[in-house]
Amino acid sequence: MSASSVLAAMTAALAERRAVALVTATGGAGEYAAQVGRHQVIWPDEAGAPAAPGDLEPGVLREQVLADVRVAIAGRAARAAVYQTDRGRLELFIDVQVPPPHLIIAGAGHIAAPLAAIAHICEFEVSVLDDRPQYASRERFPTATRVIAGPFAAELHRLRNGRPHFDAATYLVLVTRGHQHDIDCLLEVLDDPLAYIGMIGSRRRIRAVFELLAAEEGLAPSKFDRIHAPIGLDIAAQTPAEIAVAIMGEIIKVARGGRAASLSDELRQQRKRQVQK
Fold first, then answer.
1. Alpha helix (H) ranges present in 62-166?
2. Which of the residues 52, 89, 97, 149 has an alpha carbon 20 to 30 A from that of 173?
3. 223: alpha, beta or left? (left if phi > 0; alpha if psi -120 to 50)
4. Are strands 125-130 and 79-85 parallel, antiparallel or unpaired?
5. Do the beta carbons of residue 41 and residue 6 sit within 8 Å?
């Protein structure tokens, strides 16, 4: 296996936001002794994946290796694995390459600027979009990966179907200037496999958005449970920068499984009580 073929596969995976692992045999005995020093590029979901370069041949252990690759990628951390069969022993090192989480900020107003900067510091890929070119500008968002000027729903649709596409490492923050934009965005993404959807606004505005979606679009109240609205952690934030900190804190909470209180908890509990009545 050439180093260039491995590098090409890893580079292509990164460009396509595909998680991938480079598996190396570090030890072996019995029929696996010949595997030592061999490598294989492995995708966690091989369906539709490009051909994987490598000369590692795990044989009957292939499904176990694939399962451990999936665990390593889900944990976003390298790991060692040892397999023992009646034919020998195989020791592997699973090195993972996972694309950075992607934060999409819909709305390029006064909160978006500090939020994009904080997300960049937290090593997120950041996309900012707004239908106003004077707001969606590189001058206002110098650290963003991409700055997009165009209609909200249309640009979200394009992001979903292009590169980067929506996946379980995609986070969406709605900080638009009006509830109609929020509605357009939610209708576009509500059924997508996003890790996080957060929407800014007062409790009155949020209730109005949810009631309109339920009445005019027939959406069940349970659909709104995945929306973090009001957005952010309950830290009594007031300034745009403080609100950005609260939002980023909530995103990290969701990503890491934290337990800090969110502003959306109260409205979520209210909806559950109404359903139970």
1. 62-75, 112-121, 152-161
2. 97
3. alpha
4. unpaired
5. yes
Q: How far apart are CA 224 and CA 181, in angstroms?
A: 16
Q: In the chain, helix, strand, coil percent, each to 5?
A: 40, 20, 35
SS (H, E, C) 1-29: CCHHHHHHHHHHHHHCCCCEEEEEEEEEE
From 154, 105, 152, select the one nearest 132 (Cα to Cα).
152
User: Tokens representing 262?
Assistant: 């969110």
DSSP 58: -
Residue of 71, 82, 15, 75 whose CA lies nearest to 42: 71
Beta bridge partners of 262: 233
Q: What is residue 225's DSSP assignment? A: G
What pTM was computed for the model?
Answer: 0.81
